[in-house]
Amino acid sequence: MTASTQTSTAFPTMAFIGGGNMASAIIGGLIAQGVPAAQILVVEPWDEARAQLRKQFGIEALAAADASLSAAQLVVWAVKPQTFKDAAHAAASHTARALHLSVAAGITSDSIATWLATDRIVRAMPNTPALVGKGITGLFARAAVSTDEKLLVERVIRTTGQFVWVDKEAQLDAVTALSGSGPAYVFLFLEAMTDAGKAMGLSTEQSHQLAVATFQGASELAARSSDAPGVLRQRVTSKGGTTHAAITHMQEHKVPEHFIAAMRAAEKRARELAAEFGH
């Protein structure tokens, strides 16, 4: 058996409902793994987006759900929460035999099960670094999902980065607050650090390079170390030194507490989305 044949059999025929950034990240990862374009179908209502998907990946892209979806063994739901219900009703009659993987924020598997009349559902909360293969995704599976189906989901998600399974679906709200929204927190700090560097006399380019490299390096150091972040922080915080001055200022102004409160606000909004669009 050739490598390409092994790859094609490792992944089933897949359909994506929605062809935005997250769908493109997963599709790009699958194509890079050698999955044939013929095994991937996308439903995307926007003309420009469909044209881009065809051009970029060589896959078939439909304007609306139709009977061709019935060939899909895995359906990936990459739609906005407010459009999920209508999209599900349009596709449900064609996808009854498929395993369903949802990357839509906030929409519970109970709602999805009702709309699609199936319990074979996995919910995922990815983040945007998936676009460069450095994502982290939280996963939750309903009881009807088999071990082999979980392994299939892992193979698909692994093309975009790492993954973590959670035991309770409500924990996905915490995943949303921590890692789903997390890249925006990093970008906010990068903005602030770049602005600070400029204010202290560096150029925009110098400040940006220093800030980005610092986040990359510190994250890699944390990933490779068995020590807790607090221990790593203490090692670079000599009493009376420059780092101590900065950390003390942030602690006195309750930056950590405000940061935690901000993530709790994101968690709360994830629950509100479920209530708002999940009926």
What does this structure look like?
The chain is α/β, with parallel strands linked by helices and 279 residues long. The protein has helices spanning 3-10, 21-32, 47-57, 81-91, 109-116, 147-158, 171-180, 182-199, 204-224, 229-235, 242-252, 255-277, and strands at 14-17, 40-43, 60-62, 74-77, 99-102, 121-125, 135-141, 161-165. An eight-stranded mixed β-sheet has the order 3-2-1-4-5-6-7-8, sandwiched between helices. The termini are far apart.
SSE layout:
Elements: H1 3-10, E1 14-17, H2 21-32, E2 40-43, H3 47-57, E3 60-62, E4 74-77, H4 81-91, E5 99-102, H5 109-116, E6 121-125, E7 135-141, H6 147-158, E8 161-165, H7 171-180, H8 182-199, H9 204-224, H10 229-235, H11 242-252, H12 255-277
Helix pairs in contact: 4-5, 4-12, 7-12, 8-9
Measured distance between first and last alpha carbons: 47 Å
The beta-strand count equals 8
Strand content: 5-15%
Low-confidence stretches: 1-6
Helix content: 40-55%
Rg estimate, integer Å: 21 Å
- Indicate the mean pLDDT: 93
Question: Biggest sheet, in brief?
Answer: 8 strands, mixed
| Side-by-side strand order of the widest sheet | 3-2-1-4-5-6-7-8
Shape: elongated
Describe this structure in a few short sentences.
This protein is α/β, with parallel strands linked by helices. Helix content is 54%, strand content 13%. The N terminus is likely disordered.
What characteristics describe this protein?
alpha/beta, disordered N terminus
